[in-house]
Amino acid sequence: MIERKILEEKIRNLENMLLKMYSITVRGVQAIVDLPSDEAFKIIEESEYSSDILNWEIFEEAIATIATQQPTAKDLRFIVMTTTIAAVHERINDLALDIAKAIKKIDDVPVELKSSIKTAVETILKMLEVTKNAMVAHSFINVHDKLGKLDDIVDGIFRDTLDFLEGKKDISVRTVMNLVMILRDLERIGDLVGKIGARLIYIETGKMVPIK
Amino acid sequence: MVNIKVQVEGLSVWYRDKQILRDICILIPEKKITAVMGPSGCGKTTFLKSLNRLIEIHEGFKVYGKVLLDGKNIYDPDVDPMDIRARIGMVFQKPNPFPHLSIYDNVVVGLKLRGITDKKYLDRIVRETLEKVGLWDEVKDRLRSSAAKLSGGQQQRLCIARALALNPEVLLLDEPTSALDPLAAAKIENLLVDLKKEYTIIIVTHNIQQAARISDYAAFLYMGRLIEFGETKDIFTNPKNELTEKYVEGKIG
Amino acid sequence: MRPSLRSLTDKFYTAFAIFAFLILIIPLLHIILSIIINGIKRLDLELITSPPKSLLGSGGGILHAIVGTAMVVFIAMLISLPLGFFVGLYLAEFAKGKFAHFLRTLISVLAGIPSIIAGVFAYTVIVVVYGFSALAGGFALGIIAIPYVARSTEEALGSVPMEIKEAGFSLGIERWKVVLFIDVGYAKSRIIAGFLLALARVIGETAPLLITILGGINIPSNIFSPANAIPLVIYQYALSPFGIWHNIAWSAALLLMIIVLVINLGVRYYLKIKAIY
User: What is the pTM of this model?
Assistant: First the structure.
């Protein structure tokens, strides 16, 4: 067998960039729990900024690799999917910043919802870890099921929040709207991590399996 | 920052009353692979042969301009072309080992004819260079048999070993895989990627994909002119010149 | 299907070609068969191991002529090989322009002159001074062989591909070393084949020997003594009135034919086994 040294090196490089992207996202999402502290807000802002830059770097590297190395089959799936996974990460960091801004506008988040947000964030972090482990180990057993179940938890939190807020009459409409947006965004982030999982499975198997 | 190994300044080459190369200026970085691409007849091979003065063995060629190797013009009157050709090795399109010589002698013929006869030294060079080109295990038991009996890919690797035996600084390759099957070609490509750790490599090719795969820098020659030169990834993703773009898109050439 | 005009024309020319071939081959076959039929009788061990006997007895051989031929051809090769080789080498690798043209014309003229002229030249230069000798004969044959050796060497070196020369130069080797060690090495088998064919060409020469080696019945003791040679023996014995001598002449002719044939076939076989590239 003939190894394609340059192509393999480029693929490793893209893998590393993706892992870096993963840690940026984890850092940003984790900080949501510590809001509204200025420090947490700053971390989220940084994550949003650096994920945007890294996203473009991954694009460039992927395009150059495709143009120069003529990858095919799994190599090609990996390189193309790397770009879409990077874009999803970038989007997650955008949403995290939206959440941070919304929390800033609220004077006082009800205690019940604070713990809901915390649970949602922890679940999302678990989902992210599932995707990372799958990518590092190239093992996709149960990834689909695990992500699906965790995403259901995040979805459930969002529905519970809606129910909870419906019964509350002492919170201003503005606050309610912001709280809905925050949990809606967390629910979206859960969906997006699911999409990352689906793309990883596609890289490995060539089959599209939506995670919802 | 990369070092410049070969600097070509205003190189023009005429064959009788026809101008083959027009005012080429290019900076070849050290220990990188630089690919020179272009359609047939664009002057690639002439360009390559101008870099080690091999062009001078052919009648009717006139060379103008400078080729600086480590800052010294190789066309200066006090420079011996034999030394230049030993410092700048060359591998040709068609594998051309000397068929009347053994594998062993093919590797060291350059050294022997330059007066080196120390058997131990020659033995060591044969082993080292054949190992370097990945041929040692295949031929170590038949070093004394004719080089003509090797396969095309093996012959080409032997030719690379022959050039490396003189311990050159620069290695010129003129479409080294165009006469080989894809597998043998892939082996040569891998070999070149390994060799760039030690040598400055300039490869002429009309195989755009090959240039893309292995080179760090790429030059595009068209009708004797250097149209564009830059990092390979830029040439292949975002060329500045419209002709280059058409060429790498496969629309001309 | 009716034969078309084209196929008729085709058949006509094929028939004509076969006819022309037969006209050519019949005399040739006649010569070969006569030599074999008449020569086989006395082609025995005695022929090649004994000197001639007196006229009265039967038997006797041509050992003196075989030794003479060996001597003469050896001297001829000694003269023509180095000279012809270097002239050919010069023409193939270095000669340019008018002088090369002049030299090539000279070689052609030399190849075209009647061999007796070479004999006359050897006669005036050597025989007149030192007398009849194997040396004089070898000198004459050497002159005849030079253009053949030169031409075959030039052709052999001309067959060296440009890629091989380029490969040599690209190793930083001087021109004369490339020529001598790369080009000549590459064309070695063809050059040797050329030598052998030149040898085969001169071994049957008779005319120049007539006036240079005298041709007696003694085995030459050294290169300065008169000698005989196989073709000369054929000539002399064939012209004699004796049947026994006629038979020996036929056998000598057969022997000469076999020698030339062996050289030619040998060269072919040699080139074939060397033609691995």
Answer: 0.82
